[in-house]
Amino acid sequence: MPFIPHTEADIANMLAAIGVASIDELFDEIPPSLRVDTLEGVPVGMSEQQVTRLMHERAGEDAGALSFIGAGAYEHHIPAAVWQITTRGEFYSAYTPYQAEASQGTLQVIYEYQSMIASLTGMQVSNASLYDGASAVAEAALMAVRANRKSRSRRIVFAGGVNRTYQKVAKAIAGTQGLLFDEAPLNADGLCTPEALLAGDEAPVAVVISQPNFFGCIEAVDALTDAAHAAGALVIAVVNPTALALLKPPGEWGEKGADIVCGEGQPLGVPLSSGGPYFGFMTTRQSMVRQLPGRIVGRANDVDGKLGYTLTLQAREQHIRRSKATSNICTNQGLMVTAATMYLALLGESGLAKVAAASHQQTRKLVAAACEIPGVSRKFSTACFHEAVLQLNRPVAPILESMAEQNVLAGLDLSTDYPELGDALLVCATETKTDEDIDRFVTALGGAMQRAATLRTAG
Questions:
Q1: What gap in Å lies between CA 361 and CA 432, rounded to an integer?
Q2: Can you give the pTM of this predicted structure?
């Protein structure tokens, strides 16, 4: 809604009609100990004109920059038809399709999405409602504890290559519900070993494995999966959906496959837009479907034999079970799911594979060219997808600042979240990056490194 249409008089009349004196009375069930009087750090409110101007200025800052950042947010080409269809009124403003007879179009789109995501991950069932990849990991951890009834442990072990932002979110959400989290270290090749993953006195209830991992490295997922299952743990796979067009699906990892698969769906037709919106996806085995959070659409024939779609297994959800629901995930991100459905339908299996192959090829070119610059080398020599870590012989932050002045967003400085890697830069290329773009990156990086060396010598 672009504006709030109710005047103070309108609000007063509505409150009088329901018999309360103020809006605060509608929330009197919230204990005083949980209320705050002020929001520290939140600036004073702005007018509509001021907000509009500010947002245009911020949008302008993004224009023209050549980005090689990645790190969970990827710039892919999105066919024009994706959002032309997604923003049609029938999809754009639709709420949760509780009333199946009036929502067959929306329900079918969700069903098709679930079918494609389940096929892509090699699993049997998918949901269609998660906030983002990070919260999907948290939900997967909670689900694993509910589903793995053979284990009394509440310990979750992250392979060291799982995005540490995802780990922080999982701890913030699930850590308050009694789950304990550990991180297994990586070896010199940027990979996690079965021995590291299962170290410790208490066997984990589940392990979380990222493929490719945060540094773009391809993990030995078969060995990790089989070792986790042998120890009685469930396997949660965190995957890049684009990479699955080339890599083995999690449902085929090891002898039994992963148990829960989740990740960030943004690469599937959702543009980069100053931090959002994103959406998470999750798939699992049919045997664990009742522990799966979020919306699920089913297909069946009605009494007249006509094909129809409806929300199914709703007893898991909060609008029926309230606090006993598998989670409080509801309608959110339905529009992003619609965009992903259109994107996957337009590209198809071969189209997605071409996108993945082109992204991998351009990353190889980027890394090879960058490593020709004095002071730049590749951190890990293992196979990667469309991300890789460059080791610099000087601090990364000033290099990034220098390149940003030339409108080149060179990558992610890993020194904050991964200080053990030293002066390391995570770079990414997708099919949107041309050979000319890579040349521009290399020229900007070479110039920045040379200027830094000159300043160091002069100092």
A1: 12
A2: 0.90
